[in-house]
Amino acid sequence: MPALTSAHRAWIEEAVRRVEADSNRSADTHLHLTPLPDAVGEAGISLYLKDESVHPTGSLKHRLARSLFLYALCNGWLRPDSTVVEASSGSTAVSEAYFARLIGLPFVAVMPRSTSPAKVELIEWYGGTCAFVDTAGQVYDEARRIAAERGGHYMDQFTYAERATDWRGNNNIAESIFAQLAAEPHPIPAWIVVSAGTGGTSATIGRYLRYRRHPTRLLVADPDGSAFLDGWAADTSDATGPGSRIEGIGRPRIEPSFVGGVVDDMVRVPDAASIATMRWVSSLLGRPVGPSTGTNVWAALGVIERMRAAGQPGSVVTLLCDGGERYRTTYFDDAWISGQGIELAPFDAALTAYAESGTLVV
Fold first, then answer.
1. What CATH number does the domain located at 22-57+167-357 have?
2. Distance of CA 121 to CAs 83, 90, 118, 138, Å?
3. Does domain 61-161 have CATH number 3.40.50.1100?
4. Which of 13, 63, 237, 306 is deepest in the core (most CB within 10 A)?
5. So where are the chain's domains?
6. How far apart are the C-alpha atoms of 325 and 211, rounded to whole Å?
7. β-strand pairing of 45-51 with 30-34
């Protein structure tokens, strides 16, 4: 790579200023105390939802996109004539399209054809264009091909997510959670529950927990079809799966950014449980949330069951990854669910019973 010219360096400085200014304009995301059945509260257990849907682009991926752009800029990988290319299942591409527009660069998202139409519309609204592939496993090579063809830069979130964010602090998501819990009855959570798409969020949180020497344990919830849990359990990076039907999380391969060594436990969450819980949480909060939030909350309820059985009071934190408005024609559409062959009834019944008794049984 050639040395930076003075003009390129000046352009980088202005681009970094714009990205940092966006961060300064955005207040930190909220941490909601989630209403749970009386029996759970009487056991001294609280569930908190870190609401990442309030970011300017509406999802947890806004944090990742900001970090990836800063990382690429400060490494000198982006130039005034670069086309930014990303492989994505949707939300990261929405956020990257936002930041590309912010610094005046064209953006191309490579994604599966099954990506929700609402996400495609958002990417295009921010000035990006979309290139579609038939399966999730095809996005990597196609993104590299387009970047090479256009003389652009492939952001490669699946490789750089775990290193682009400063896990030691700098108001990363873990530091924010602990600051917001400081005045709560249990300021050091027993568990933090997340799901993995790139693995960047779990890596950041897990490293932070060890760096700050917190006893908090990290649980990663993995949807059906994803390779992460199998790879973690077998301690291998070679595991594969058919891919996830829950947008934004789960992958057909172990991504380079997934750091299994910081994970204390993993659990498989059936797609029907993710979607039923998504709808249940939406009703609980009075606003729609996305399916990965359902995955997270279902796993968190399982952790709470274990804490109750052990007589362990404390707090559990999980993530509200994005709003449900993007999924009106998919996960909130009964006809779409039926067409996918997903049966929600057993999990709907389990959650209805849980709301009454505080005991989760499927």
1. 3.40.50.1100
2. 20, 10, 5, 22
3. yes
4. 63
5. 22-57+167-357, 61-161
6. 37
7. antiparallel
Closest CA to 47 of 211, 281, 362, 321: 281
Give the residues across from 51 on adjacent strands.
Answer: 30, 320
Phi, psi of 201 (to 5 degrees): -70, -45
Q: How far apart, in whole angstroms, are the C-alpha atoms of residue 113 and residue 306? A: 39
- Host H or E run for residue 130: strand 129-133
Spatial separation of the C-alpha atoms in residues 251 and 89, rounded to whole Å: 10
User: CA triplet 105, 72, 159: central angle to 5 degrees?
Assistant: 115
Q: How many residues does the chain have?
A: 362
- Tokens 């352009």: give the residue: 11
Angle formed by the axes of helices 61-74 and 91-102, nearest 10°: 50
The CA-based angle 27-30-34, given to 5 degrees, is: 175
In the three-class reduction of DSSP (H, G, I as helix; E, B as strand; rest coil), residue 224 is classed as: coil
CA–CA dist 196, 292 (Å, integer): 9
Q: Which two tokens stand for residue 338?
A: 């039926």
Joined tokens for residue 57: 């682009």
Per-residue pLDDT tens over the stretch 69-86? 999 999 999 999 999 999
Helix or strand holding residue 87 (H, E): strand 84-87
Q: Cα-atom radius of gyration of the chain, to the nearest Å?
A: 20
Q: 13-68: per-residue pLDDT in tens?
A: 999 999 999 888 876 899 999 999 999 999 999 999 999 999 999 999 999 999 99
Q: Which of these, 287, 278, 292, 286, lies nearest to 333 by C-alpha position?
A: 278
Buried b (16+ CB within 10 A) or exposed e, 13-38: eebeeebeebeeeeeebebeebebbe
